[in-house]
Design a protein that fits this description.
It is a single chain. The chain is α+β, with helices and mostly antiparallel strands. The protein has one domain (about 5-75). The chain contains 4 helices and 2 strands; from the N terminus they run ααββαα. It has helices spanning about 5-20, 35-40, 55-60, 65-75; strands spanning about 45, 50-55. A two-stranded antiparallel ribbon has the order 1-2. Strand 1 and strand 2 form a beta hairpin. It is globular and about 35 Å long. The two termini are about 25 Å apart.
Amino acid sequence: GALDPIVRYDLQAQMRELFAQLGKTVVLVTHDVAEAAYLADSLVLMRAGRVVQQGSARDLLEQPADAFVQRFLTAQRSIGDAA
């Protein structure tokens, strides 16, 4: 969120490295799908306090459990959307 893109990019790389070094399960809560896919081996998508789907980012993208999962994963704007 509030970090500039360069700092956020570098911090995500550091976090990914730290998670790998720790060899522990880490729970990270984010609404940023790209960040979740970059940092996690397994994603858990929740709605109204309930698990809607769990799996790898690829699993969720290729086989969304329902319309909510599909919409959540594709509702991310890119710089190309502004043109």
